[in-house]
Amino acid sequence: MEKILNSIRENIESILIEKEILIDSISYDIEGKDNFLRIVLDKAGGIDLDTIVMATNLINPILDKLDLIKDEYILDVLSKERGNE
Questions:
Q1: What is the 3-state secondary structure (H, E, C) of 2-46?
Q2: Burial of 74 (0-12, 13-18, 19+ CB in 10 A)
Q3: Would you write out the chain's pLDDT as a tens digit for each of its 85 residues?
Q4: CA–CA separation, 46 and 7 (whole Å)
Q5: Cα dihedral 39→31→7→14 (10° resolution)
Q6: For the chain, which end, N or C, has fewer CB atoms within 10 Å of the first or last residue's CB respectively?
Q7: Is residue 12 a part of any domain in this protein?
């Protein structure tokens, strides 16, 4: 799975960098009977919901085209937790 996650990172990173968005982490998690592809993003000043939606709309067609994960999964794009700043 690590090879697949690295390939995903390589394929989505450049389009996100154009929008000044960084990939913090990518993981594939199984919770109960659901599979989640989690992509945690970061950006200077933090990421708002509109940016998450925009990033998801950029990432989703790339993942569909790559078709690297054969199991059904839920794409979960989220922002890095900032804690109390």
A1: HHHHHHHHHHHHHHHHCCCCEEEEEEEEEECCEEEEEEEEECCCC
A2: exposed
A3: 899 999 999 999 999 999 999 999 999 999 999 999 999 999 988 899 999 999 999 999 999 999 999 999 999 999 987 654 4
A4: 25
A5: -10
A6: C
A7: yes
What's the gap between Cα 31 and its chain centre?
A: 17
Residue 47 included in any domain: yes
Look up the CATH number of the domain holding residue 44: 3.30.300.70
Task: Report how far residue 31's alpha carbon sits from residue 35's, in angstroms, rounded to the nearest whole number.
Answer: 6
The contacts of residue 66 (CB under 8 Å, 6+ apart) are 7, 8, 11
pLDDT at position 77 is 96
d(CA 11, CA 5): 10
